[in-house]
Amino acid sequence: MDASVAHGPFIRGLVFSGALLHGCEALRNQLQLLLWGGLRVAELRSPDQTSEPGAVPSGVDILQLSDSNTWEPVLKAWAEGHGLQLPGEVVVLASGAGDAEVLPGFTANAGQDAPWPRLRLALAHANLLRAATLGSAGASGTSGRKRAREEVEEDVGPAAVADSAASAGSSGTARGSELVVVGYAMKASREADLAKEGLLNLVPQDGVVFAPLDLSQPLESQLPFHCILHKASDELEYGPPSPPAAAAAAGESAVPTAGRGVGGEGAASASSTGDDGGASGGGAGLLVPRFGPRVRAMAEFVSQQGGRVSLLDPLQSTAKVINRTELGRVCDSLSQVALQGAVGGAGVVVRAPRNVTIASYEPQQLEAALKQLGCSAPFIVKPVVACGTPDSHAMALALWPQALGGLAGRVPLPAVVQEFVNHDATIYKVYVAGNKVFHTVRPSIPNVPHTRPAAEALVASGVLTFDSLKSLPTKLPSDASPAASAASAAVPAAAAAAAPAATSFTPSQEVLELLAAHLRAALGLSLFGFDVVVRTVEEDEEQKEATEPHAAKPRELVVVDVNYFPSYRGAKGAPALFRTAVLGAHRAQVPG
Q1: Where exactly are the structural domains of the chain?
Q2: Which CATH number is associated with domain 319-583?
Q3: CA distances for 407 relative to 22, 166, 263, 402, angstroms
């Protein structure tokens, strides 16, 4: 099959035989990801084949053969109906098929699930081969195409070695053809979230194509690829602190985690709170969150490639956002950002919420911590470990100081006690992809009363727990009493009336870009997100401003969270901006 005859050189359609599709669970599990990746997918059924409803996802076309027709005209009509060139842009896979020229190093097998997880990597390799062939055509003619094909075929064969990516680049595969293969490593649920948003295209776009990598297998055997995109926080472990140099190389957190493991409240828990807000203590059981062995091996592999493979983002940078105490220190520097000259920046300041790290819910330690915190309730309490574990998103709203004592066993220790800023139930989710900044507006936690009687009317215990990964509590619960029900109903209603349309202040795009630029430099990240709220002007402040104009305070923007590599869910134009950011970050590490 000569791909150069096609008006578009890349594979855009896949057709599977019915016998193959229904004989391989591993293949069926990929169908939705193939569709989300931009491929047209069809099942070619023989006259006697049927399947149960729902056996394949919506979007897979069924090409049913009859006794009187053959597959060629049926397939041709399907391809033409979707604007696909046949055979140039369509690959047909059936048992025993798998021409190495089409999908290098891959053979379709109905009886084995093992090859199928690598189907999408084989697609990337095939498109890389086609890009190399086309990229060499103009300058070198037929001999150039043949040489490029041979070089890339050697790269993607079973005996591929560590310098495969280099030879691909030198033959024009990555640079001459401007096609970069981005291998990604992350858990399946995160892969599905990103693919659903159109971020993991399997058909080359803007010079980028994505493919999954298997960290349980040698990365050398999965070459060529030019970039590894990772969510390393999916694979965290905990161990004793390493020396500073080794810790930086491994991407370890600098703040110890008390107890036998994350959230442990055993005998090794820290016994005091240090002056800098970090948990302190002299126990031998102090642990730190760090990236697991597969992630460290991935980083070591990249370091051995001689600058031919990039890592997005470097572990030293991503390590800064897995520990909320460290992240708080980075965000404290936001107060240095000058907004006065920006559009929408007059009379606006930005800061992080006040926070303190605790290692115990004992009354004496809480009293000392709150004195250091220096602000009144309510508080939001979060585990120090920001991601990567089931309980890293277990949080609580404590409506008065004494309520903190009821969080033992509910929010893991050590924990960060953070000032809760009323913000009219509106949060700005800001996404950063390279130098592009965009945002969405979402509902958030309603305003909470500052007086204990009013707070008790909402939540008698003073504690509201939630999982931030699933959803913020956009409504406060009501208790059994009629007064509590009325109070609970009033708060979200008031918040809804105030936000977002009627709010008196909305952060401008230029202001958000200034915040993003500061965090980008402070963290060293190219793919991240952060959450911003506008502190509500309380009623007593409004009255004072009305009678004493000179007493008016600046509008406060508060950055309440930062995370690495968000889903970019709901952000307009995210796929194209994401591809541009990935390509730009890759080229910053691997110029040429």
Answers
A1: 3-225, 232-318, 319-583
A2: 3.30.470.20
A3: 50, 54, 12, 10
